[in-house]
Amino acid sequence: MLRAANLHSFHSFLVPSSPPAVAGPILVVDDDQFFRQLASDMLSRRGYRVVTVESAAQALEEVGRASYDLVITDVVMPGMDGISLTEKLRERDPAQEVILVSTRKDVKGSAMALKVGVAVVLPKPVDETDLLLATERALERAQLRHERAKLQNENLEFARYQHLHQRCLEFLSQPDLEWLQERVAAELASVCDAQSAALWISDDRGQLVLRAYRGLLDRHFLVDRISTEGPLGPSMREGQPWVAHEQRSPILYVPFVNNGELLGLAQLSDPLAGDFRAEHLHYAKILGDSAAVGVKNGRKMLALQRLGLRDRDTAAYNLSYFTDYASKEIYKARRYGRMFSLLTFSVDNLPLVRMRLGATEAKLAVRGIIKALSRIVRDSDVIAKASDQEFYLLLPETDFFGAMMFVRRALAAVREEPEAQEVEARLPLALVGGASTFPKDGEDFDELMYRCRRRMDERRASLQRKLMLDTLPFWDEVDLLLGNASSPRLPVEDNAEPSRRGKVSDALFDELQVEIARELMRDPTSRGLLYVGSPEIRSELPIVQGLESASPDMASRIYLLGRRMDLESHRALTPVFLEGDERMSRHEFILWLSENAAYALIQRRGLGATWGFHSSDTAVVDGLITRLQAEYDLQPY
Predict the structure, then answer these.
(1) Where are the 4-aspartylphosphate residues found in this chain (predicted)?
(2) What pTM was computed for the model?
């Protein structure tokens, strides 16, 4: 009796009364239905979940649909045998637990069993105790692997959240917006396994402006600005990341929203795994929310820094801040292929104002000029006071034509500023401006400043200043510049742009129109202003015919002025009909101001000869256009 009790106790120790709590299903594979049923009954009595199939092919299909902690398979089966099945299973999962059963005595411990990584081979007929013991040990190993994998995943998840937490703290504590923009794009790409990233940040007008990009993206295919009222607007305002599959590669959009304010948008693309997963959206949301707060904090810090770097009298920034800001703008322009413009303004006669009117009036004049400039700049533009009589401006995302138009607006704004008017009523202010553009005029601060000063010197030497043409109406200026055969020679300095008057070819007016039309067709994206004045607006004018096939989206604005004839409209130019203007009927002119050229031709046809004035003096061309616009109430900019 004692021996029987001991054997029963030993049997109970070997064979578990119930399966492990987390035991997964067991797959039994055998072409013998009797064995399948026998094995299923043995295992089911112990609480295991069992699925049976009769072939290796069915087993592979079943494993493709669900995961099995253990596969028990016969070695000898029609078609694919158990050894080949084990190889296939191990290809899918190298850790797959497999028990082989066979009537062959040479399988256990054989090279072919060890080759496929199977150490347990049970002989048929299978002993229930051996089967249950082998099953228990196999499932324990599977359970240990599951627990280890779970711990590894938990550790990885903890490390990932710790990493995210650290990145979020950096976003919240870093006041440098330039650093923040670059870092946000890099970190989002990293945590979302994306090879490419682009970042747009909201500007002072509420539009999203491209600030950073990295990876496989081509800069030319990235839009500079995204309107919050565009197709992406509703999704962005919801503040939740989303994936779009409209293009060749899925795109993950991550809006930066804080307290209902849209501060930015990140675009992630080219995912390493081919698509973005749910956890990527979760991580992106965490980083995006912190980035939104970081951008907001950075803006506040920048505002405080700027407040402490302003001149006390004029509120303009000091030169130290300006040069630092310009260095950062140069870096961004090089990095992202952008442009910006640098402008300089000088009150040349400020010492004379101080001497004649006193220091108080000189300060009043300077304050009025700064006020006028501050009234027309954007939030992203920077004004600095370099000295008592010289001021610098930096205009991000502004080309050379835009800079020239800003100089015009600035001079007009100063003339309208009450404090400046108060001084000018007693002594006119000699304000001169110059502009340069990155990278057109240079790629470092010194080069750009040199070009600005060169252009200021050109304006100082210009006929516009020598003849004080700013004070004359358009047609009075035309008469003065044209003169006649007995008029004195124009006071042109050697270092000034050439200006001449005298007899000109009768064909010059038409030839110039042909050349200008060719240039406009060659580069339709170049911005500029062109005014062609003629006694009659006719369809056979060379400029009309030369632009017949031009796109209506041409960047330059072109106007024809004269009496109405047979041309009512044109796709690339705007007719301005002037009826009954005798001065227009006696003159022809071309006024062209663009990023790359400045030219003026004014001529009056006479008996046997044509008398004309032509010049490449930018200040003269600009002045003539300004007076023409004022004369006929044309759009100034």
Answers:
(1) 74
(2) 0.63
